[in-house]
Amino acid sequence: MKISTRGRYGLRAMIDLITHAEGEYISLRSIAERQGISSGYLEGIFAALKKAGLVLGSAGSQGGYLPALPADEITIYRILDALESSLSLTEGSEPDAPPLRAFLNKEVWDRIDSTVAGLFDSITVADLIREFENRDRAVNSSGL
């Protein structure tokens, strides 16, 4: 499994949105500027996030996006699932696979996929924001 640029940028954009929204719609342009991501690229990402029910959009000059859920209900898994074609290490089950291949699919690859999905689903955007803020405070207070 390799998380694409779309998935990595989408996670950054969601964290940025949640950090800055505070009840007001945030423009893609402002997220793009803060994160160094093109607005055009973010449009596709936010269309997928909106379709997945993770953000709310509003058109117009005062428009933009808001998180559709609280940060502690948005997991890395939900974001990546909305943006990636697959979160699996392999291409999936093969109904007529030879016995050894079927065994390895079930006992190795499927177990790894399940473990990774569980890890992604256990980490919320709220967790990431808290950890980032704690590390940022620690770095800034150390005088570095």
From TrEMBL:
Any Pfam family hit: Rrf2
Transmembrane residue ranges: none
Keywords: DNA-binding
Domain of life: Bacteria
Gene3D superfamilies listed in its UniProt record: Winged helix-like DNA-binding domain superfamily/Winged helix DNA-binding domain (1.10.10.10)
InterPro entries on file: Tscrpt_reg_Rrf2 (IPR000944), WH-like_DNA-bd_sf (IPR036388), WH_DNA-bd_sf (IPR036390)
Keyword DNA-binding applies: yes
NCBIfam families the UniProt entry points to: rrf2_super
Full protein name: Rrf2 family transcriptional regulator
Species whose genome carries this gene: Christensenella tenuis
Organismal lineage: Bacteria, Bacillati, Bacillota, Clostridia, Christensenellales
